[in-house]
């Protein structure tokens, strides 16, 4: 009987360990409120594209307030998500006393995950900085230093090429450029549009695929890769059997919303759907937890009227800044039900680590 019981215990432990996700893929829409998500779905309908978010469920009603304001910014929200702690506006990867916090990325790297981030904004923007930096969000110098010395990510793809020691006229790296230092830390380094700048015998890489932010998808310049191509090129390079923690930011939804640029926000939201569609097909949902979330809403966007097929949509803007709303938090795939029905962004990290059985 004792033997039988221990067999049952061993078997159930095996089931539990099999049940946890091998990969965690987070797709974040900066500034993407629930109305933005609805708009992205209507745009799919109008363009005969699959609505990728239809596979997702609303996992939790999520708040994002900071220690000093109900309306957050990308820095404090990224800190809550990556570091599991509410902080003050403008702080990235630091608590209210400016003490450095450990990020999900660093923790999961120590646990043997392949860890990386892809964004269409600058590397020193507050959201991508949340995974590696400890700084005020406007302190580009410190954020850059933290990136160069971070040394834990397996891949990192962003814009902001021009801040890493390139000659502003030729756009080629200077002798003592930060790009070279990153290479000396053991990374392949790619530049504009994924052009190889510095090779390495290591697999890991950083790519700075645009000067500044990538352009809005409806305003790409000749030869500029659409964001989906950047994501696909990255996934082709990183896909193997190692467990994966990947954070993909559709970061320009926020910028388009700040300036109430309706056409740009539509093109960015359609791109967001294409990326979700691609990733949910590329990675097996039985072994992957997919999370879609937003750090905050921007613009007070509302759908004023629309035909049911999304072919004639009128939207209204109410604001040019972030607003205080509950933010989307959607899940799909393995372990999609792990989150409490109501939470704050700062709770995500602990729930995830518990599910992944990380102390
Ligand atoms: Zn913003």
Work out the oligomeric state of the chains in this entry: single chain
CATH architecture: 3-Layer(aba) Sandwich
Strand fraction equals 15-25%
Bound molecules: zinc ion
Q: What is the 3D form?
A: globular
Average of per-residue pLDDT values: 94
- The secondary-structure element order is HEHEEHEHEHEHEHEEEHEHHEEEEEEEH
CATH-assigned homologous superfamily: Alkaline Phosphatase, subunit A
CATH class: Alpha Beta
Unreliable runs: none
* Overall radius of gyration: 20 Å
Domain module count: 1
Characterize the biggest β-sheet.
Answer: 10 strands, mixed
CATH topology: Alkaline Phosphatase, subunit A
GO molecular function: alkaline phosphatase activity; metal ion binding
Organism: Oceanotoga teriensis
Binding site for Mg(2+): 30, 125, 127, 249
Family: Belongs to the alkaline phosphatase family.
Would you spell out the secondary-structure blueprint of this structure?
Layout (H helix, E strand, L loop, with lengths): L1 H18 L3 E7 L4 H13 L10 E2 L2 E3 L10 H10 L7 E2 L11 H7 L3 E9 L3 H7 L2 E2 L3 H11 L4 E5 L18 H7 L3 E4 L3 E4 L6 E4 L18 H12 L5 E7 L1 H7 L3 H21 L5 E6 L3 E2 L3 E5 L6 E4 L5 E2 L5 E5 L8 E3 L3 H8 L4
Parallel strand pairs: 1-11, 1-12, 3-18, 5-7, 5-11, 7-10, 8-10
Antiparallel strand pairs: 2-17, 4-6, 8-9, 12-17, 13-16, 14-15
Helix pairs in contact: 2-10, 3-5, 8-10, 9-10
Protein name: Alkaline phosphatase
GO molecular function: alkaline phosphatase activity; metal ion binding
Keywords: Hydrolase, Magnesium, Metal-binding, Phosphoprotein, Zinc
């Amino acid at each position: 009987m004792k033997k039988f019981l221990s067999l049952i215990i061993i078997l159930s432990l095996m089931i539990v360990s099999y049940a946890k996700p091998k990969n965690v893929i987070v797709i974040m829409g900066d500034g993407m409120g629930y109305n933005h998500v609805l708009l992205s779905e209507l745009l799919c309908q109008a363009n005969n594209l699959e609505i990728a978010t239809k596979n997702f469920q609303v996992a939790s009603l999520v708040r994002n307030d900071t220690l000093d304001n109900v309306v957050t910014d990308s820095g404090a929200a990224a800190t809550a998500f990556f570091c599991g702690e509410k902080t003050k506006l403008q702080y990235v990867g630091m608590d209210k006393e400016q003490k450095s916090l450990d990020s999900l990325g660093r923790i999961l790297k120590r646990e043997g995950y392949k860890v990386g981030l892809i964004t269409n904004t600058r590397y020193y923007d507050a959201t991508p900085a949340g995974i590696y930096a400890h700084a005020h969000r406007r302190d580009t110098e410190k954020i850059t230093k933290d990136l160069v010395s971070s040394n834990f990510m397996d891949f990192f793809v962003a814009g902001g090429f021009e801040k890493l020691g390139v000659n502003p006229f030729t756009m080629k790296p200077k002798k003592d450029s930060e790009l070279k230092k990153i290479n000396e830390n053991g990374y392949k380094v790619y530049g504009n549009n994924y052009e190889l700048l510095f090779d390495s015998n290591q697999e890991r890489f950083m790519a700075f695929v645009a000067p500044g932010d990538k352009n809005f998808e409806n305003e790409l310049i000749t030869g500029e890769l659409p964001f989906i191509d950047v994501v696909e090129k990255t996934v082709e390079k990183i896909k193997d059997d190692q467990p994966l923690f990947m954070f993909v930011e559709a970061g320009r939804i926020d910028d388009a919303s700040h300036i109430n640029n309706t056409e740009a926000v539509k093109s960015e939201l359609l791109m967001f759907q294409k990326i979700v569609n691609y990733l949910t097909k590329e990675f097996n949902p039985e072994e992957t937890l997919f999370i879609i979330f937003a750090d905050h809403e921007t613009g007070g966007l509302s759908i004023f009227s629309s035909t049911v097929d999304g072919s004639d949509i009128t939207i209204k803007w109410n604001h040019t800044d972030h607003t205080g709303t509950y933010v989307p938090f959607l899940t799909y795939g393995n372990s999609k039900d792990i989150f409490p029905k109501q939470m704050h962004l700062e709770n995500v990290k602990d729930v995830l680590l518990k599910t992944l059985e990380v102390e």
